[in-house]
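## retry 2 of 3
previous attempt timed out at serialization; input unchanged, resubmitting
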Amino acid sequence: MGIEIVQVDAFTNAPFRGNPAAVCFLGEARDPAWMQNVAREMNLSETAFLVPRTNGHNGQKWPSEIDLRWFTPAVEVDLCGHATVASAHALWETGRLSADAPAHFHTRSGVLTAERRGGWVELDFPSLPETAAAPPAELAGALGVTPSYTGKSRFDYLVEVGSRAVLQGLQPNFATLRQVEGRGVIVTSRSDSPEYDFVSRYFAPNFGIDEDPVTGSAHCVLAPFWAAKLGRQEMTGYQASARGGVVRVRLEGDRVRLGGKAVIVLRGELV
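## retry succeeded, writing output
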């Protein structure tokens, strides 16, 4: 019998938009090298591996307590928003969890909770505030733009630019960007549309992802950054990649509530 795997487009309600992630349902933990090989085979920005905690596991119905790990085609990562949205959506859509049951994911970043709220998946993630930092010498050259502000969070650099037009015009030199230490670079600006409060793009060539379509964990940095600038705790962000995606954020102390929609686009099995 094969291992069920689905592909989910996250932070969108339309197929072929947002950020695709594979979600692999495992009956028991597997070797990390095997998981890395599966992620490389799927060749998506992230593949999520779910293992139900044994207490209460009965056939197709899973307990709410679930182990979750994320792999890019190159490495295992500590935090990933879109593959967590995808995982929760897949659990509900396949009937492993009831639609009104929360999912409590046990991860390398602690326990992360996902709940269904009016057609949206809402995640409870840690806030990752940045602090002002001198930009590495390679950063401005790699982006081809002079930042108006540069900060550093636990994982990423954050760069503010003057407008959405500047943001969308970026054509990074990824070979140079690989010389910048850290997971990746978040570039952001105020929105020029009333639909959104801010816009962003995310680049992580060191982790095998030149540009990520929509990045939930980056919004754990963007939420406190824009909350301080705009004086608002609740906002909507648009990640302006080629696929594009919408992320709702709500800052609650040292936590960020991330909201996104999702749709399954492919179902299959590993044989």
